[in-house]
Amino acid sequence: MxxxxxxxxxxxxxDRELTYLRAGSDPPWERPHRDGVDVTDHPAAWTPYQRExxxxxxxxxxDYRQRGLIxx
Length: 72
Fold this sequence. Notes:
This protein is mainly α. The protein has one domain (14-67). Helices cover 39% and strands 6% of the residues. The protein contains 2 helices and 2 strands. The protein has helices at residues 14-22, 48-66, and strands at residues 33-34, 37-38. The protein has a two-stranded antiparallel ribbon. The protein is globular, with a radius of gyration of 13 Å.
């Protein structure tokens, strides 16, 4: 389910996000779900909001790797 119309991405808790990434997993709130099922590996099932969130997350992960904050 998408949030209200016109919703925008919120502030990111970088420390918490890095904790998950350093442990080798994605933060659960950044994994798209549909009807209670994880659809992260099925981009066609993502809503526009989930797509925007996931692409933003993937860009941050690439930046963390480039800056040496997580292993490549």
